[in-house]
Specification:
Blueprint: H1 6-14, H2 23-48, H3 59-87, H4 93-102
Length: 107
Protein backbone atom coordinates (compact mmCIF):
# COMPACT_ATOMS: atom_id res chain seq x y z
CA UNK A 1 0.00 0.00 0.00
CA UNK A 2 1.42 3.40 -0.96
CA UNK A 3 0.92 6.13 1.61
CA UNK A 4 0.67 9.61 0.16
CA UNK A 5 2.76 12.41 1.56
CA UNK A 6 1.01 14.22 4.41
CA UNK A 7 2.03 17.58 2.97
CA UNK A 8 0.52 16.82 -0.43
CA UNK A 9 -2.74 15.95 1.26
CA UNK A 10 -2.96 19.08 3.43
CA UNK A 11 -1.33 21.66 1.15
CA UNK A 12 -4.37 22.34 -1.02
CA UNK A 13 -6.67 22.37 1.99
CA UNK A 14 -4.91 24.85 4.27
CA UNK A 15 -2.77 27.01 1.97
CA UNK A 16 -4.31 30.05 0.31
CA UNK A 17 -3.56 30.90 -3.32
CA UNK A 18 -1.11 33.58 -2.10
CA UNK A 19 0.91 30.91 -0.24
CA UNK A 20 -0.14 31.85 3.29
CA UNK A 21 -1.82 29.54 5.76
CA UNK A 22 -5.62 29.76 5.91
CA UNK A 23 -5.85 29.86 9.71
CA UNK A 24 -9.64 29.46 9.82
CA UNK A 25 -9.44 26.36 7.62
CA UNK A 26 -6.51 24.98 9.62
CA UNK A 27 -8.55 25.32 12.83
CA UNK A 28 -11.47 23.47 11.21
CA UNK A 29 -9.20 20.67 10.02
CA UNK A 30 -7.53 20.34 13.42
CA UNK A 31 -10.94 20.24 15.09
CA UNK A 32 -12.07 17.46 12.76
CA UNK A 33 -8.80 15.60 13.28
CA UNK A 34 -9.11 15.90 17.05
CA UNK A 35 -12.61 14.46 16.86
CA UNK A 36 -11.35 11.50 14.82
CA UNK A 37 -8.53 10.90 17.31
CA UNK A 38 -11.10 10.74 20.13
CA UNK A 39 -13.63 8.54 18.32
CA UNK A 40 -11.53 5.98 16.40
CA UNK A 41 -10.09 4.29 19.53
CA UNK A 42 -13.63 3.77 20.84
CA UNK A 43 -14.62 1.99 17.64
CA UNK A 44 -11.41 -0.05 17.51
CA UNK A 45 -11.89 -1.18 21.13
CA UNK A 46 -15.50 -2.09 20.48
CA UNK A 47 -14.92 -4.18 17.36
CA UNK A 48 -11.74 -5.90 18.60
CA UNK A 49 -12.86 -6.76 22.12
CA UNK A 50 -10.55 -4.05 23.54
CA UNK A 51 -7.48 -5.60 21.91
CA UNK A 52 -6.67 -2.53 19.77
CA UNK A 53 -7.19 1.12 20.62
CA UNK A 54 -4.52 3.23 18.95
CA UNK A 55 -5.47 5.37 15.96
CA UNK A 56 -2.40 4.55 13.89
CA UNK A 57 -3.10 0.90 13.07
CA UNK A 58 -3.45 -0.02 9.42
CA UNK A 59 -7.07 -0.78 8.50
CA UNK A 60 -6.32 -4.39 7.52
CA UNK A 61 -4.76 -5.07 10.94
CA UNK A 62 -7.89 -3.80 12.70
CA UNK A 63 -10.11 -5.83 10.34
CA UNK A 64 -8.08 -9.00 10.98
CA UNK A 65 -8.25 -8.62 14.77
CA UNK A 66 -11.97 -7.80 14.60
CA UNK A 67 -12.61 -10.89 12.44
CA UNK A 68 -10.71 -13.08 14.92
CA UNK A 69 -12.62 -11.53 17.82
CA UNK A 70 -16.01 -12.11 16.20
CA UNK A 71 -15.10 -15.67 15.24
CA UNK A 72 -14.14 -16.37 18.87
CA UNK A 73 -17.42 -14.85 20.09
CA UNK A 74 -19.39 -16.87 17.57
CA UNK A 75 -17.72 -20.13 18.65
CA UNK A 76 -18.31 -19.35 22.33
CA UNK A 77 -21.97 -18.55 21.64
CA UNK A 78 -22.42 -21.71 19.58
CA UNK A 79 -20.84 -23.88 22.27
CA UNK A 80 -22.96 -22.28 25.00
CA UNK A 81 -26.13 -22.74 22.94
CA UNK A 82 -25.25 -26.36 22.24
CA UNK A 83 -24.55 -27.06 25.91
CA UNK A 84 -27.84 -25.38 26.88
CA UNK A 85 -29.70 -27.55 24.36
CA UNK A 86 -28.11 -30.65 25.89
CA UNK A 87 -28.82 -29.51 29.45
CA UNK A 88 -32.44 -28.70 28.56
CA UNK A 89 -32.74 -32.12 26.90
CA UNK A 90 -33.51 -30.60 23.49
CA UNK A 91 -30.75 -32.84 22.14
CA UNK A 92 -29.43 -36.07 23.62
CA UNK A 93 -25.99 -36.53 25.11
CA UNK A 94 -25.15 -38.75 22.15
CA UNK A 95 -26.11 -36.07 19.62
CA UNK A 96 -24.25 -33.45 21.63
CA UNK A 97 -21.08 -35.56 21.72
CA UNK A 98 -21.36 -36.31 18.00
CA UNK A 99 -21.62 -32.60 17.21
CA UNK A 100 -18.69 -31.73 19.49
CA UNK A 101 -16.52 -34.45 17.89
CA UNK A 102 -17.27 -33.25 14.36
CA UNK A 103 -17.92 -29.53 14.58
CA UNK A 104 -14.36 -28.32 13.96
CA UNK A 105 -14.76 -29.38 10.32
CA UNK A 106 -17.51 -26.77 9.95
CA UNK A 107 -16.17 -23.97 12.16
Amino acid sequence: MKIRSNWNFWKDIIIKSDGTVNLAQLKKELSDFSHVLEQVPLVYCHITGSLLSKTNYFAQDVINVADEHYEKLWKETFNTMLADMRNDKVISEKVYNNIIENIEVYL
